[in-house]
């Protein structure tokens, strides 16, 4: 078991994320061009759909917890992750957080295909909040982790998808986050590399980092998380330990 | 092992909570908060500008030379066809320098707005995944426009020196003033339009058309004297013409760098008097700068209102 579940640490751990009454509404418009908007002006209510992705979600996360967000497709878990990360603004309620946050939402989102691996490492680290000096320090370690040293000065558009993902993951885990948001990206690369990623995640847990994880893999959730939040149609239907969470998740599928 | 976790927990417990940045301040101070936030990301801004410049001509053998070829060809076209064939150069001494000065400053403005407007949508991948102060994208576009402007500026200055008439006078102060005003207005529109473009993609095509039109609304290929002569019966039209801060800046820029415009020259046996520059130019420039700053402020406030939904609209 990871050592962060040591009750002594958890008992006095500070709260790092606090969501209070968070609601998010999406308005789905069916028209996009100016012509359509003018033609449908006045009747535009008909061309809008309201959809609550999150309704009145409240919880607190303590430092060092690994928390899994689960739910059926479209239950709002990725939206919640984005709201926690500050990428989407909630319509109602507030999200408070502290500490450095890094999002592993989609690996390589900041990569530019025409730049070399080396240039992308600097760009992506900077996007995730590292200074140039820090990147210089971590550079060798990032390259070693990704195991693609010989291609580091090649443009990334020539990379295989595996190499791409390796480099992106290597950067993300070197950012030294206090809170790490992970959206279904742990199943990357070949088996040895996956094992390496899992080791890194465990090391993160041991170092008291908070990990918020969205996953559909029951095995992964059971393995890593010490708390599970189950979402269904934007509502929190369960908040508790991993085993109970997976049970609640199966129940929510039946509705 | 627990010690590292404990150290982290202790450090975290002392940090203040920050409310989700996006819920951002809606009051006036939000403008300065945004500036502070951008300042703390200046290393990233620098990298984004480099990325923009590096990727633009990547894999082409001439590389940056291309960013010069376009304005030089433009210069050639305007010099030969508008200047010589259609006769706009008549009565304008050193027509080439005159046109290139105008084109250089106009290039800064139009590139800032055109690439700035598209910047948020074209960086959609990043905006959907990571929180960054989003103003950084139109600013990066501005940065690369400034770089291209400086490259052209070197050519322009070289041409002036080669022709042996470097305008060493107080008029030279008009050059930085014109640059700053164009930058303020360019950034203001880039920030505003980049946000609007997320909600209505037509904006970026509209901008192209409007910029084409505005090019002719400024004295770039025709001289100020031409405008004065054209509207001599309705002088109030001149005031309307000068309300455009870009026209005013281009005039100031020409006044600074195009020495022939402020001297009496002899052209084809005829004496050409110096340009009749608009009255109160300094005051007008000051006005354009102040109004520009107000517009920039408003643009940023609108941007920060709109950016909350960027991630889901892109």
Automatic annotation (TrEMBL), chain A:
GO terms for cellular component: membrane. Keywords: ATP-binding, Nucleotide-binding, Transport. The keyword DNA-binding does not apply. SUPFAM superfamilies: P-loop containing nucleoside triphosphate hydrolases. InterPro entries: AAA+_ATPase, ABC_transporter-like_ATP-bd, ABC_transpr_TagH-like, Bact_Polysacc_Export_ATP-bd, P-loop_NTPase. Residues 36-252 form the ABC transporter domain. GO terms for molecular function: ABC-type transporter activity; ATP binding; ATP hydrolysis activity. It comes from the Bacteria. Belongs to the ABC transporter superfamily. This is ABC transporter domain-containing protein.
From TrEMBL, chain B:
InterPro entries: ABC2_TM (IPR013525), ABC2_TM_bact-type (IPR047817). GO terms for cellular component: plasma membrane. It is a multi-pass membrane protein. The chain crosses the membrane at residues 60-82, 88-109, 136-166, 172-193, 205-231, 283-303. GO terms for biological process: lipopolysaccharide transport. Keywords: Cell inner membrane, Cell membrane, Membrane, Transmembrane, Transmembrane helix, Transport. It comes from the Bacteria. GO terms for molecular function: ABC-type transporter activity. It is found in: Cell inner membrane; Cell membrane. Residues 62-306 form the ABC transmembrane type-2 domain. Its main location: membrane. Belongs to the ABC-2 integral membrane protein family. This is Transport permease protein. It comes from Subtercola boreus.
């Amino acid at each position: 078991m990871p050592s962060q579940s040591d009750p002594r640490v958890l008992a006095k751990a500070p709260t790092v994320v606090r969501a209070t009454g968070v609601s998010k509404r999406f308005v789905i418009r069916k028209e996009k061009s100016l012509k359509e908007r003018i033609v449908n002006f006045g009747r535009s209510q008909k061309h809008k759909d309201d959809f609550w992705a999150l309704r009145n979600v409240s919880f607190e996360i303590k430092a060092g917890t690994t928390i899994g967000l689960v739910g059926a497709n479209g239950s709002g878990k990725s939206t919640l992750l984005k709201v926690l990360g500050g990428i989407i603004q909630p319509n109602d309620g507030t999200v408070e957080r502290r500490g450095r946050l890094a999002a592993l939402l989609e690996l390589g989102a900041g990569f530019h295909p025409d730049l070399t691996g080396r240039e992308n490492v600097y760009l992506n680290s900077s996007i995730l909040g590292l200074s140039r000096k820090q990147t210089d320090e971590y550079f060798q370690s990032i390259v070693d982790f990704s195991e693609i040293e010989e291609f580091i000065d090649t443009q990334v558009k020539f990379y295989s998808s595996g190499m791409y993902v390796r480099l992106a993951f290597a950067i993300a885990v070197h950012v030294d986050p206090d809170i790490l948001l992970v959206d279904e990206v742990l199943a990357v690369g070949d088996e040895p590399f996956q094992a390496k990623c899992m080791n890194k995640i465990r090391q993160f847990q041991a170092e008291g980092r908070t990990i918020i994880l969205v996953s559909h893999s029951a095995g992964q959730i059971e393995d890593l998380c010490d708390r599970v939040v189950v979402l269904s149609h934007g509502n929190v239907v369960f908040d508790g330990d991993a085993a109970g969470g997976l049970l609640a998740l199966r129940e929510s599928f039946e509705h | 092992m627990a010690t590292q976790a404990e150290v982290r927990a202790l450090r975290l417990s002392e940090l203040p909570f920050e409310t989700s940045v996006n819920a951002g301040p809606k009051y006036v101070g939000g403008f300065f908060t945004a500036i502070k936030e951008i300042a703390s990301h200046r290393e990233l801004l620098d990298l984004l500008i480099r990325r923009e410049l590096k990727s633009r001509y990547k894999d082409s053998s001439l590389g940056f030379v291309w960013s010069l070829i376009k304005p030089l060809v433009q210069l050639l076209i305007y010099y030969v066809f508008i200047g010589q064939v259609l006769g706009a150069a008549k009565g304008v001494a050193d027509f080439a320098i005159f046109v290139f000065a105008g084109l250089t400053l106009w290039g800064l403005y139009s590139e800032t707005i055109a690439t700035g407007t598209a910047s948020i949508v074209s960086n959609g991948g990043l905006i959907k995944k990571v929180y960054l102060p989003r103003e950084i994208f139109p600013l990066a576009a501005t940065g690369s426009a400034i770089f291209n402007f400086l490259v052209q500026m070197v050519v322009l200055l070289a041409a002036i020196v080669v022709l042996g008439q470097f305008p060493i006078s107080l008029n030279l102060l008009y050059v930085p003033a014109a640059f700053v005003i164009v930058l303020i207005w360019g950034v203001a529109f880039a920030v505003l339009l980049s946000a609007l473009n997320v909600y209505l993609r037509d904006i970026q095509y509209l901008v192209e058309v409007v910029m084409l039109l505005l090019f002719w609304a400024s004295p770039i290929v025709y001289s100020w004297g031409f405008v004065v002569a054209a509207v001599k019966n309705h002088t109030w039209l001149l005031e309307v013409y000068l309300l455009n801060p870009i026209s005013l800046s281009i005039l100031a820029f020409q006044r600074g760098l195009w020495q022939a415009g402020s001297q009496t020259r002899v052209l084809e046996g005829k004496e050409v008097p110096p340009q009749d520059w608009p009255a109160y130019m300094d005051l007008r420039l000051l006005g354009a700068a102040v109004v520009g700053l107000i517009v920039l402020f408003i643009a940023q406030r609108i941007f920060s209102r709109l950016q909350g939904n960027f991630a889901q609209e892109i």
